[in-house]
Design a protein that fits this description.
317 residues, alpha/beta, Rossmann fold, 2 domains, 6-stranded parallel beta sheet, 43% helix, elongated
């Protein structure tokens, strides 16, 4: 089959939607299908896979109008599941038009209307550790934050928590991600100037991001909303312990028993977890062990098999 993937993130972007689209294109090609990626206008195809119900709605509607019953797969992001499908007419219409819906972790099903759950499939994301992992920096306890500077990511929560740490702490926060808002770039530079524990590294290549993540002692995901965080999966692949905001998307990835949750926006709670991770080896090992138990669910082989099953189902239909 000819499969066309639509994502709002352009070629060269390090946005999660683009990373997911490119990884899936590799899986689909490995299964013997032809595959293209575009941002809204693309080649003829037998199947359309559209990431983001609202932002890709124009392409979704055009496909439905021109191709009738041809397979249309809509992939639901965090902002779709926990915002847009509740209030945006385009997003809700995308749900109706889709032949199949994809969520990235089991908790995503609960956010959907009952009427569309039967046509929803779970495709759990995957990641692989870089081939070479640098030794941790012995001069500091490096904590990474991986994600573009967007309000939905609550991007400065870890920096603010680091300000509350005792003077003896060696924690240094490394933030990887582009500023998608000029005001957030100004704030990041101000935070660097005022907070000696924080460095904003800006946008990096995927290889650089994985290399820095893999050498770090800890990763923090502070998002207010996630459909299924690529950064969390990458940390698990690199055996890096994770602290995360307690949101459905991350609960669906790490499980309810993961010991590293803090409440959304809880700066003091995150600071306490950071201090424990640095000072209590047993707690850090508990975080690592919890991640190891979750990691097997995020293998490339499982993701490939999910796509094999979905495409076979669409071909049969």
């Amino acid at each position: 089959m000819r499969v066309r993937i639509v994502t709002p993130a352009p070629e060269g972007s390090t946005a999660g939607n683009r990373i997911t689209a490119e990884r899936w294109a590799g899986h689909i090609a490995a299964l013997g299908h032809s595959v293209t990626i575009d941002t809204g206008v693309g080649a003829e195809a037998d199947v359309l896979v559209a990431l983001h119900a609202r932002r890709s709605h124009t392409a979704i509607r055009a496909w439905a109008e021109s191709r009738g019953g041809a397979p249309l797969v809509v992939v639901l992001t965090g902002t779709d599941l926990y915002g847009d499908i509740l209030a945006d007419e385009d997003a809700r219409r995308s749900l109706e038009l889709a032949t199949r819906l994809i969520v990235l972790q089991p908790e995503g099903l609960a956010a959907l209307p009952e009427s569309v759950r039967a046509k929803t499939r779970i495709v759990v994301q995957s990641a692989e550790a870089p081939p070479r992992v640098d030794a941790p920096d012995e001069s500091a306890f490096e904590v990474t934050v991986v994600g573009h500077l967007r309000a939905v990511k609550d991007p400065f929560r870890t920096a603010e928590a680091a300000r509350l740490l005792p003077r003896t702490s060696r924690i240094r926060v490394l933030h990887l991600g582009a500023a998608l808002d000029a005001d957030l770039a100004v704030r990041a530079r101000r935070e660097e100037h005022e907070n000696p524990r924080y460095r904003w590294l800006g946008s990096r290549t995927r290889d650089d991001t994985l290399r820095i993540l893999a050498r770090s002692r800890l990763m923090v995901s502070s998002s207010r909303v996630e459909g299924g965080s690529n950064a969390v999966v990458e940390a698990l692949a690199c055996s890096v312990p994770v602290l995360a905001s307690r949101i459905p998307g991350t609960l669906g990835q790490l499980g309810a028993a993961h010991p590293g949750y803090f409440e959304v926006g809880d700066t003091a709670g995150l600071a306490l977890l950071l201090e424990r991770a640095e000072s209590e080896p047993v707690f850090l090992e508990d975080l690592r062990a919890s991640g190891a138990r979750a990691r097997e669910r995020f293998s490339p082989e499982r993701e490939l098999e999910a796509w094999r099953a979905l495409l076979a189902e669409l071909a049969g239909a």
